[in-house]
Amino acid sequence: MRKNLLLTILILLLLTINTIAQTYLIQAKPFGTRLWGYINLQGDFVIEARYKKCYEFSESGFAPIYDKRNGFYFIDRSGVKMQTEVEKFKLKSLFGITGFNEGLVPIFVKNAWGYLNTEGKLAIEAKYSKAMPFKEGYAIVKSGNNFYLLDKIGNEVLVQVSGVVEIKSFSEQLAIYKTLKGLYGFINVKGEVAIEAKYKSVGYFNAGLAWAKTFDGKIGYLNKVGEWAMEPQFIAVSDFNNETQLARIKKGENWAYLNLEGDIFYCNDCISNTEFHDGLAKAKAKANEKFGFINSNMEWVIQPQYEGVRHFKNGYAPAKVGLKWGLIDKQGNWVIEPLFAALKDVEVIN
Predict the structure, then answer these.
(1) Terminus of the chain with fewer CB atoms < 10 Å: N or C?
(2) Residue pLDDT, tens place only, 152-188
(3) What span, in angstroms and rounded, lies between the C-alpha atoms of 242 and 173?
(4) Helix (H) or strand (E) segment spanning residue 198
(5) What CA–CA distance (Å, rounded) separates 193 from 174?
């Protein structure tokens, strides 16, 4: 009995320490300036608004910055510039500038790509013509005419597939590849074909399924052995969401949600609705054309009352009232009152 009590106390202590150790930072732009800084959950500037181009913090505690004079560099949670053994480098742009992922970031140095670690060291030599961010322990790189799977200490596994022109990051141990003929399929972590390239386009695996488009323009969902789990019948789709196990699909005029059993759900009160993030989806209401959030049962969890919102991330979402942005929690309570010209997502630093 006493051992169980001590074990419970120890677990609670570890959880408390972990919670305390986490830092939440949000990119914020105050009124009257074009510059961005970073605020905490109390709405106070931890790093003053002094950047024209700054980007989100990664869990490792560093954010990319760009200015014309210094080029790209990283700052820590106090705004101190990271000292790096490579003075001048460029970062990859994939829907925004790519920062650290799994402790490494691809950097472009002297006409080649390598990887920088969080100590500012060039952990993997810059010798590749292409380099993707790390995901699930691997990065996709290219040298000469060959693609490789790269692990975190620089070991390479040759992709043994001919005619490959592009490979994307891994998701559920499978990565999308594209051939010279413009066909898409999937490779595994051994660099071998897992699903043959015969589709016009494909999405990432989530919840065990990935969408694939046939050459008649119809989209269905594949399982991991390349069989149709749901026959091609949709005109537009998204990847499945791991938490809600729903995908956003369009079969007729309106968007809806699809579950793993093939059931379709509509938000009847919505003009528009988006993919799920953190268990909630932002939606625009028919009644007043304002934004709120729905759950996986198509119910309004946060009533439509905002002029604009961003997706939930790490338990919080930016919301706009009039011209001002603040931050709400999943109950719709203001965590930060609407005072800012712009806010971005809440990032957690461990």
Answers:
(1) N
(2) 999 999 999 999 999 999 999 999 999 999 999 999 9
(3) 15
(4) strand 193-199
(5) 10
Supply 271's token pair: 């003009």
State the Cα–Cα distance between residues 50 and 35, nearest whole angstrom: 5
Structure-token match 């200490």, residue found? 153
65-93 burial: b if 16+ Cβ within 10 Å, else e: bbeeeeebbbbbbebeebebeeeebebbe
The dihedral sign for the CA sequence 204, 243, 346, 30: positive
What's the helix, strand, coil split of the chain in %, to 5?
Answer: 5, 55, 40
Give dist(CA 345, CA 332) in Å, integer.
16
Return the residue matching tokens 């994939």: 94
* Partners of 57 in beta bridges: none
The gap between the terminal CA atoms of the chain, to the nearest Å, is: 33
Strand partners, 286: none
Burial of 59 (0-12, 13-18, 19+ CB in 10 A): middle
The pLDDT value given to residue 245: 97
Beta strands, E only, 8-121: 23-29, 36-39, 45-51, 53-54, 62-67, 71-76, 90-91, 104-109, 112-117
